[in-house]
Hints:
Elements: E1 2-6, H1 13-21, E2 38-47, H2 50-53, E3 63-65, E4 68-77, H3 92-98, E5 104-110, H4 130-149, H5 152-161, H6 166-173, H7 181-190, H8 203-217, E6 220-225, H9 227-231
Parallel strand pairs: 1-4, 1-5, 5-6
Antiparallel strand pairs: 2-4, 3-4
Helix pairs in contact: 4-8, 6-7
Amino acid sequence: MLVGVVGKANTGKSTFFKAATLAEVEIANYPFATIKPNHGTGYVKVDCADKFFNVQCNPRFGFCINHKRFVPIDMLDVAGLVPGAHEGKGMGNQFLDDLRQADVLIHIVDIAGTTNENGEPIEPGTYDPENDIRFLEEELDFWYLGIIKKGWDKFSREVFQTNKDVKKSLAKQLSGLGVTEGMVEDLIDKLELDSKKIVNWDENDLFKITQSLRKQTKPMIIACNKIDILAGA
């Protein structure tokens, strides 16, 4: 599993990444201290079954200490995203592409509101962190939409004219994002799309497809950072 650490600039992504992996990364209080993605390994601690079975644990991956198993998890810290990233703003296309292989995302949010939408320092509480949650989801949605729409007219005509299986064709087209045939099939049923007339799917249909596939292939949790600043304000 590859976990992507994401968020806007200057929210503490690299600090979180360093704490989770002990990797040496640059940490600075200005936007885009991170440009190239940082890659490292973190560990999830779980109870080991060795005590139950009364055997010595020698895992192929990770390690075991005092009946606690440390399971390795690959982590990727990408540069901060800004509004309009899917349009290339702030080198957004490059940073979004870095996330392509991630299986799940951790969104680091400056819950104290000490950074504006561009990641620049401001007075605590003067920016609504809810905007960041909304903006990142929208950027990912429009990024997915751009991938789907690229060559869509030619693709949809070919599928329609040759009577190809829509779910197989679309899953193959989007396999780089982890989309499966099952996902596409369930989505067609849920949105009540006509699989026999893919050429009639409009922009609204494509965006609904985009949102659903993004949520399935890039599940996200929110990590609230800098809350101590609010507490001390």
